[in-house]
Design brief:
heterodimer, A: 16 helices, globular, B: about 70% helix
């Protein structure tokens, strides 16, 4: 039964014992098993993206009242495979004057940076790539490498539009890292740890309940980090062709494409892990494989929201995007961080004087944090209302669009059918 | 040889090659990329030393922020990036001599230092390390004064940059 409830750990320990039985040293066996695990996690990410590309295209189709891919396999589920073969057979074009090494390095960097984040995501309480004690910071660090890939692609292409895309990438991706890190500090404060798996363990009440504002800020800024609509300024096709990936063709373009889709699912998995309780759910502690199911259900729900936002939002202007970051998200995140820290400290100072059973303690804490979040939200809405009135300049009074029937009767005999057009 | 030693040797070779290429490369962007590789190698050394926090901070600060700023600044000056001047000047031998002497002196001091051969005492538990670091940075009898001074310095630098770059309103 061990195999059925926890297959990965079972296979891992079986492999370790097998290799030890062959007379290899413990350190060497650990290294080999870790390398195999890393390869598996990476391959799993790529396998997953084959599915999510189909899913996203299908959802797009449905939301736009189309069918989406529906020819290859049932519901078009194998559509990605012909697309892959097509992309493999395309010609590589390297533009004249391009910086060849950097030009070829950039797509690899942008895919591998996304895959690296999967190393710390816990699928179940026993199935963790590696439980780093600074996992949250690791996620931020890996995000920085991804933006490096985009910048290098834009620079090395020797194309003005690519360069413009790279400039936008610097403005957007680097500045949205600020509210993202600040929002990530809130779960770290609440869970009192920086390890991702320990954070999931600490979520006896989901962090989205304890701090919905932090979840909102994190979610918004990671969507901006992926560079998808409504934040797709780095590849805005109506303005700068395709931004940083204008000159890429064949598999190199394919890698950017895979990287983008994988990034979209990775941020969903991260949001599910950090704010929706990750693998937590009924019987997840006893049967680890159930934890995997809970984790993926939550991740796909978040992913659905990501796709929904992408398909239904118009693109932001660059000044709106930067104003939103620096004048709204960052101050909000700073205020939230300070308030959460003070409230949490006060709560634990006040605990000894209040009699409360240990079972209700997390819920009482969550309730107080939720209350504080709601107060911040109300104050925020009041402040925003003032700004809204100031920022809207009245250019003209509204005009009547429809002509009254009485006026129509007068004009019709003189000018004939033209009167209807006015 | 343990696997960790093999990894250490590979990473050391890569880091040193990258560090050398930073100064010998003629293209500014290539130099910045080699610098990133060298900094990444240092991050791996931190991991091998069981200091995950410093490794991750190294990647965030140096690669995620400083190296990207380097590349961004170099991107804005595309035309002056290619440099065809000779890479050494007439006093290169003096520099080499001073560097060699410094290296010899450091090697001499370090070989006589007993701490080099004795393994360091193990640190506290995994999450305990960050806790100790955080407490040391804010406790009055440790490093709170240097910490705050560094913050003030950074704020002053930031205000100066904003003043220099900002629009002058009259």
């Amino acid at each position: 039964m061990n195999f059925l409830s926890d297959p990965i750990t079972f296979i891992g320990s079986w492999l370790t014992n097998l290799l030890l039985g062959w007379g290899l040293s413990q350190a060497l066996v650990n290294t080999i098993v870790k390398f195999i695990g890393a390869g598996l996690v990476g391959t799993f990410g790529f396998a997953l993206v084959i599915f999510t590309i189909w899913l996203e295209r299908k959802l797009y189709g449905r939301i736009q009242d189309r069918l989406g891919p529906n020819r290859v396999g049932p519901y078009g589920i194998f559509q990605t495979f012909p697309d892959m073969i097509k992309i493999f057979t395309k010609e590589y074009i390297t533009p004249d004057g391009a910086d060849k090494v950097i030009y070829n390095l950039a797509p690899i960097l942008s895919v591998s940076a996304v895959l690296l984040a999967w190393a710390v995501i816990p699928f179940a309480h026993t199935i963790v790539g590696t439980d780093v004690n600074v996992g949250v910071l690791y996620i931020v660090a890996v995000g920085g490498i991804g933006s490096l890939g985009i910048i290098l692609a834009g620079f090395a292409s020797n194309n003005k539009y690519s360069l413009l895309g790279a400039f936008r990438a610097v403005a957007q991706v680097v500045s949205y890292e600020v509210p993202m890190v600040l929002a990530l500090l809130v779960p770290v404060l609440l869970g009192r740890t920086m390890g991702v798996n320990s954070l999931v363990n600490a979520q006896s009440v989901w962090f989205i309940v304890m701090s919905p504002i932090a979840a909102f800020i994190f979610f918004t800024s990671v969507i901006a980090e992926t560079g998808r609509a409504p934040f797709d300024l780095l590849e805005a096709e109506s303005e700068i062709v395709a931004g940083y990936q204008t000159e890429y063709s064949g598999l190199k373009f394919g890698m950017f494409y895979v990287g983008e889709f994988l990034h979209a699912f990775t941020i969903s998995a991260l949001t599910a892990t950090l704010f929706l309780g990750g693998w937590r759910g009924p019987f997840a502690q006893q049967v680890p494989i159930l934890g995997v199911a809970w984790f993926f259900i939550k991740a796909f729900i978040v992913y659905f929201v990501v796709v929904l936002i992408r398909i239904s939002m118009p693109r932001l202007r660059i000044d709106q995007m930067l104003n939103f970051n620096w004048k709204f998200l960052t101050p909000l995140a700073l205020i939230l961080l300070v308030v959460t820290a003070v409230v949490d400290k006060l709560f634990y100072l006040a605990i000894p004087s209040v009699t409360i059973s240990a079972a209700y303690l997390p819920w009482a804490r969550a309730g107080i944090h939720l209350l504080v979040n709601l107060v911040i939200l109300l104050v925020l809405i009041q402040i925003l209302k003032g700004y809204q009135i100031k920022s809207r300049v009245v250019v003209a009074q509204p005009r009547a669009v429809v002509i009254t029937p009485l006026a129509e009767v007068k004009t019709v005999p003189q000018e004939g059918s033209k009167a209807y057009d006015s | 040889m343990t696997p960790e030693q093999i990894i250490f040797i590979i990473v050391a070779v890569v880091t040193l090659t990258a560090a050398l290429s930073v100064v010998t490369s003629r293209n500014l962007i290539h130099s910045a990329l080699w610098l990133i590789l060298a900094l990444f190698g240092v991050a791996i050394f931190y991991v091998l030393l069981d200091a995950g926090f410093f490794a991750v901070i190294q990647v965030i600060i140096y690669i995620g922020a400083i190296a990207i700023l380097f590349i961004f600044a170099a991107m804005l000056t595309r035309r002056v990036m290619q440099d065809s001047d000779p890479q050494t000047n007439s006093t290169w031998w003096l520099g080499a001599l001073i560097a060699g002497l410094l290296f010899a002196g450091l090697a001499l001091v370090l070989t006589n230092w007993p701490g080099l051969s004795t393994p360091a005492s193990p640190l506290a538990g995994d999450s305990e390390k960050i806790r100790q670091l955080g407490l040391a940075l804010v406790s009055p009898d440790h490093y709170v004064l240097p910490f705050e001074l560094a913050s003030i310095l950074l704020v002053a630098g930031m205000i100066g940059a904003i003043y220099v770059a900002g629009e002058k309103k009259r």
